[in-house]
Amino acid sequence: MEKEKVPQDKGNLTQSNLKELVYATDENGNYTTALSTGWEPKTIALSNSIDEINERIADAKQQVENGEVSPICYYMEINKMDLTILASYVGMWKWRVKRHFKPAIFAKLSPAILQKYADTFDISVAELKNIKTA
Protein backbone atom coordinates (compact mmCIF):
# COMPACT_ATOMS: atom_id res chain seq x y z
CA MET A 1 0.00 0.00 0.00
CA GLU A 2 1.26 3.44 -0.82
CA LYS A 3 1.98 5.80 2.04
CA GLU A 4 -0.58 8.34 0.78
CA LYS A 5 -3.28 5.64 0.67
CA VAL A 6 -2.88 4.42 4.25
CA PRO A 7 -6.44 4.27 5.66
CA GLN A 8 -7.50 6.97 8.08
CA ASP A 9 -10.99 5.63 8.89
CA LYS A 10 -12.63 6.03 12.25
CA GLY A 11 -11.54 3.11 14.37
CA ASN A 12 -10.97 1.92 17.90
CA LEU A 13 -7.84 4.05 18.15
CA THR A 14 -9.63 7.26 17.17
CA GLN A 15 -11.46 7.43 20.50
CA SER A 16 -8.21 7.55 22.47
CA ASN A 17 -6.35 9.81 20.03
CA LEU A 18 -3.88 7.03 19.19
CA LYS A 19 -2.50 5.95 15.85
CA GLU A 20 -1.31 2.59 14.62
CA LEU A 21 2.08 2.16 12.99
CA VAL A 22 1.78 0.38 9.62
CA TYR A 23 4.12 -0.39 6.75
CA ALA A 24 3.63 1.30 3.40
CA THR A 25 5.67 2.12 0.33
CA ASP A 26 6.98 5.59 -0.38
CA GLU A 27 7.10 7.34 -3.76
CA ASN A 28 10.25 5.33 -4.68
CA GLY A 29 8.65 1.98 -3.85
CA ASN A 30 10.70 1.52 -0.68
CA TYR A 31 9.10 0.27 2.49
CA THR A 32 8.57 2.84 5.19
CA THR A 33 6.23 3.36 8.12
CA ALA A 34 3.09 5.47 8.31
CA LEU A 35 0.50 6.25 10.98
CA SER A 36 -3.13 5.22 10.61
CA THR A 37 -6.14 6.12 12.73
CA GLY A 38 -7.91 2.95 11.61
CA TRP A 39 -9.25 0.85 8.79
CA GLU A 40 -12.96 0.05 8.69
CA PRO A 41 -12.65 -3.70 7.88
CA LYS A 42 -10.13 -4.15 10.71
CA THR A 43 -12.37 -2.21 13.10
CA ILE A 44 -15.35 -4.42 12.21
CA ALA A 45 -13.33 -7.60 12.66
CA LEU A 46 -11.98 -6.43 16.01
CA SER A 47 -15.44 -5.42 17.18
CA ASN A 48 -16.83 -8.83 16.19
CA SER A 49 -14.03 -10.57 18.09
CA ILE A 50 -14.69 -8.51 21.21
CA ASP A 51 -18.41 -9.26 20.97
CA GLU A 52 -17.66 -12.98 20.73
CA ILE A 53 -15.36 -12.82 23.76
CA ASN A 54 -18.05 -11.01 25.76
CA GLU A 55 -20.60 -13.67 24.78
CA ARG A 56 -18.24 -16.43 25.93
CA ILE A 57 -17.73 -14.65 29.25
CA ALA A 58 -21.50 -14.26 29.74
CA ASP A 59 -22.07 -17.94 28.86
CA ALA A 60 -19.37 -19.05 31.30
CA LYS A 61 -20.87 -16.88 34.07
CA GLN A 62 -24.32 -18.34 33.43
CA GLN A 63 -22.93 -21.89 33.53
CA VAL A 64 -21.24 -21.16 36.87
CA GLU A 65 -24.46 -19.70 38.28
CA ASN A 66 -26.35 -22.80 37.05
CA GLY A 67 -23.85 -25.06 38.81
CA GLU A 68 -22.69 -26.63 35.54
CA VAL A 69 -19.02 -25.59 35.80
CA SER A 70 -16.69 -24.14 38.41
CA PRO A 71 -15.69 -20.46 38.57
CA ILE A 72 -12.35 -21.42 37.04
CA CYS A 73 -14.07 -21.52 33.63
CA TYR A 74 -15.42 -17.99 34.08
CA TYR A 75 -12.09 -16.51 35.10
CA MET A 76 -10.34 -18.39 32.31
CA GLU A 77 -12.65 -16.66 29.80
CA ILE A 78 -12.29 -13.24 31.45
CA ASN A 79 -8.51 -13.57 31.18
CA LYS A 80 -8.76 -14.69 27.54
CA MET A 81 -7.09 -18.02 28.23
CA ASP A 82 -7.71 -21.51 26.98
CA LEU A 83 -7.14 -24.80 28.77
CA THR A 84 -3.54 -25.15 27.55
CA ILE A 85 -2.55 -21.65 28.63
CA LEU A 86 -4.26 -21.93 32.02
CA ALA A 87 -2.63 -25.31 32.69
CA SER A 88 0.80 -23.87 31.93
CA TYR A 89 0.22 -20.87 34.22
CA VAL A 90 -0.88 -22.99 37.19
CA GLY A 91 1.73 -25.68 36.49
CA MET A 92 -0.68 -28.60 36.16
CA TRP A 93 -1.61 -31.11 33.49
CA LYS A 94 -4.51 -30.08 31.24
CA TRP A 95 -6.59 -33.08 32.32
CA ARG A 96 -6.21 -32.03 35.94
CA VAL A 97 -7.28 -28.44 35.27
CA LYS A 98 -10.21 -29.69 33.20
CA ARG A 99 -11.22 -31.88 36.13
CA HIS A 100 -11.27 -28.76 38.33
CA PHE A 101 -13.98 -27.37 36.02
CA LYS A 102 -16.42 -29.75 37.74
CA PRO A 103 -18.16 -27.98 40.64
CA ALA A 104 -17.96 -31.03 42.93
CA ILE A 105 -14.20 -31.35 42.40
CA PHE A 106 -13.69 -27.57 42.70
CA ALA A 107 -15.44 -27.59 46.09
CA LYS A 108 -12.83 -30.06 47.40
CA LEU A 109 -9.71 -28.25 46.16
CA SER A 110 -7.05 -27.49 48.73
CA PRO A 111 -6.30 -23.89 49.73
CA ALA A 112 -2.90 -24.17 48.01
CA ILE A 113 -4.43 -25.12 44.65
CA LEU A 114 -7.10 -22.45 44.97
CA GLN A 115 -4.34 -19.94 45.66
CA LYS A 116 -2.53 -21.01 42.46
CA TYR A 117 -5.65 -20.24 40.45
CA ALA A 118 -6.27 -16.98 42.33
CA ASP A 119 -2.68 -15.85 41.72
CA THR A 120 -2.96 -16.74 38.02
CA PHE A 121 -6.16 -14.71 37.67
CA ASP A 122 -4.81 -11.91 39.92
CA ILE A 123 -7.76 -12.16 42.31
CA SER A 124 -8.32 -13.34 45.87
CA VAL A 125 -9.42 -16.86 46.74
CA ALA A 126 -12.71 -15.38 47.99
CA GLU A 127 -13.32 -13.81 44.56
CA LEU A 128 -12.43 -17.11 42.89
CA LYS A 129 -15.03 -18.94 44.95
CA ASN A 130 -17.76 -16.34 44.42
CA ILE A 131 -18.07 -14.78 40.95
CA LYS A 132 -20.82 -12.48 42.15
CA THR A 133 -18.11 -10.27 43.65
CA ALA A 134 -16.42 -10.00 40.24
Q: Count the domains.
A: 2
Approximately how much helix is present in the residues? 40-55%
Biggest sheet strand line-up: 1-2
Distance between the termini: 45 Å
| N to C succession of SSEs | EEHHHHHHH
CATH class of the largest domain: Mainly Alpha
Descriptive labels:
134 residues, mainly alpha, 434 Repressor (Amino-terminal Domain), 2 domains, two-stranded antiparallel ribbon, 2 strands
Characterization of this structure:
The protein is mainly alpha-helical. It is 51% helix and 9% strand. It contains seven helices and two strands. It has helices at 40-65, 71-78, 83-90, 94-99, 103-107, 111-121, 125-129; strands at residues 20-25, 31-36. The chain is elongated and about 65 Å long. It starts with 19 loop residues before the first strand and ends in a 5-residue tail after the last helix. The model has no long low-confidence stretch (mean pLDDT 90).
Helix and strand topology:
Layout: E1 20-25, E2 31-36, H1 40-65, H2 71-78, H3 83-90, H4 94-99, H5 103-107, H6 111-121, H7 125-129
Helix pairs in contact: 1-2
Short note summarizing the structure:
By secondary structure, this protein is mainly alpha-helical.
